Amino acid sequence: MLRTFSYAALFAALAPVLHAEEFTWAVTTDPQTMDPHAVNSAPVLGFLNNVYEGLVRRGQDMAIEPALATSWEPIGAGEGWRFKLREGVTFQDGAAFSAEDVLFSYQRASSEEADVSSWFAPVSEVVVVDDFTVDIMTTAPNPIFPDSIANWMMMDSGWAAANGAERPNKDTGNYATLNANGTGAFAITNREPGLRTVLEPFAGWWGEATHNITRAELTPIQNPATALAALLSGDVDFINPVPVQDVARLQNDPSVKVIQGIEARVIMLGFPHEADALKYSTETTDANPFADPRVRRAVAMAINVPAILQTTMRGNAEAINQLVSPAMRGYSANLGNDPVYDPEAARALLAEAGYGEGFSFGLKCPNDRYLNDEAVCQAITGMLAQVGVRATLDAMPVQNYWPELRADNYDMYLLGWSPGTFDAEHPIRFLAATPNEEKRLGSWNFGGYSNARVDELLPMIQSEIDEPKRQGMLDEAAQILQDDTAYVPMYVQPLVWGARANIDLVQRPDNFFILRWVSVN
Known about the structure:
Blueprint: H1 7-10, E1 21-27, H2 42-48, E2 56-58, E3 64-66, E4 69-75, E5 80-85, H3 99-109, E6 123-130, E7 133-138, H4 145-148, H5 157-162, H6 175-178, E8 186-192, E9 196-201, E10 213-220, H7 224-233, E11 238-240, H8 247-251, E12 256-270, H9 293-302, H10 305-310, E13 318-319, H11 343-352, E14 359-366, H12 373-385, E15 389-396, H13 398-406, E16 412-417, H14 425-432, H15 452-463, H16 467-484, E17 488-500, E18 503-504, E19 519-520
Parallel strand pairs: 1-10, 1-11, 14-15, 14-16
Antiparallel strand pairs: 2-3, 4-5, 5-7, 6-7, 8-9, 9-10, 11-17, 12-16, 12-17, 13-17, 18-19
């Protein structure tokens, strides 16, 4: 049955802990959808963390804390996890939250139609014990499972059924694409894709409001210079990101402030490992040079990462040699054999692989997803040309970019990856495991990289509870990926946010902007 409700009742005035204010902010990438299970990307998940909630969530320090579950504990000797649910929680349409919604959200998010289905590869079944107890059974002991579901958001089964949104549809969309009904601190009152999204506090939220926002409006502004002008004029209160070339200028302006940090996201290059031939070469049309690890290593040695960091990134990023940053659990501190900038050695490797004259190819890159993404790709194009590897750069908005990668329309591509679990297992599962739809592995491994030992190590890493043993496995996997040059990790992306001087907020290394931590003074 379709439920009716009153927005006037839902968005009543907050208790006067702080004086109430409106808040506006701008980002370069508009969330692609309002469906929390349809698209596995930071712009979507970060935004929807303000509207929907999971069983657990990450706090200001990134630690896992209770959300719709008040507690959890392992079942037996690693058979799964039991979650005790929070009672008295309602969705924004007034419906009560219960274990049946958890079961429905599992069935929906783990379905073939869901872009987040790979999160549930370790899950064998979800059992409703009672209205406020759920058992999530796993195929093997999984000590990091609660960390892995911080962005799995609960949907109301009745609302989804009433509106024909029982399953996500990321291609053509459905009711949940433009509308939302979460349990979170804020509810969407107006959604105009590409123009604006308006949120207001949910008066029925179970938590304690620490913000003073009465209305929040998100505006996508793709041009960073335009966003910066809007911040300086006071048209918006917050922008993400600040162009790195403008940081010093903003730091000298008392009306605004710059919030800087290092994101969890590693920026890397990916290859078409399993392709038979290049798609965009003018002369090498019957072979795939990137299938040869010597060619991939030559690419790594031809790219002067320190120069990119100094010029394009203005010293605001940190070089990296693996798929996770040092802040992540499982980072391999002693990873050896780093490829260093050496164009002569790169040319020698190319000659050894049979490409002494080089070759042409197509490089795909987004122009509105990562900080200075197109400029970084332009710099890479120039560096590779110095060793005879000639790229034709094709940069495009991210809404067009992901479909191109999933359709294998590239010869090389730029990718940024932030592990949702803050653990080194995460990129192995998504980026390095041999793609397997049935096992929900390698869902972002566009190029089809495959290594039998990495595939063997992954389930062992996922189930090992002895930390030194687990770290040894992660170190081995990291070494294999580096020896194979499965990807070319370059740097950890910086976080550079800008806000009006009267705005207090919290910056997390996952680049999620959480409205309930904002105060307008």
